[in-house]
Design brief:
The chain is an alpha+beta fold. The chain contains 2 helices and 7 strands, in the order ββββαβββα. A hairpin with an 8-residue loop joins strand 5 and strand 6.
Length: about 140
């Protein structure tokens, strides 16, 4: 997704009882994305005439196999990017089935989202998860 695309990001979380978030490791962008830093949320670009809500449900299902309720949330996004952010709660026994876009996934604690780059992605996670942890 480029900074001119409209897109969605879905922060998938679960309670274990601590808050954990699902990170996906990108596998399709070549050598620049081979490091341990290439972690992200499920998400992607909107199709023509697709609503952000529909895109969030589609991207979540395509990239993880999960069919969860996606709720729009306010989140800090890097200026110049048109990204709608959603939050979705998973259950402990929900199985993740990755698409070819990702080669692995991890459930991590809030302190571990710093591996997401650029830095604003990690900040977006922290902001969304702060609201989740008080609910």
């Amino acid at each position: 997704m480029t900074d001119t695309d409209r897109g969605v990001a879905i922060v998938v979380w679960r309670r274990t009882p601590r808050i954990e978030v699902l990170l996906l490791h990108r596998a399709i962008f070549g050598a620049d994305f081979e490091g341990d830093w290439a972690w992200t949320s499920p998400g992607g670009a909107l199709h023509d005439d697709e609503s952000p809500e529909s895109a969030a449900l589609r991207e979540l299902r395509e990239e993880t196999g999960l069919q969860l309720v996606c709720t729009a949330v306010d989140a800090a996004i890097e200026p110049g990017f048109d990204v709608s952010v959603f939050v979705a709660e998973a259950e402990l026994d929900d199985d993740v089935a990755l698409s070819d876009e990702h080669d692995r996934c991890e459930w991590v604690g809030v302190d571990d989202v710093g591996r997401c780059l650029p830095a604003w992605v990690a900040e977006m996670y922290r902001g969304v998860l702060a609201h989740v942890s008080v609910s």
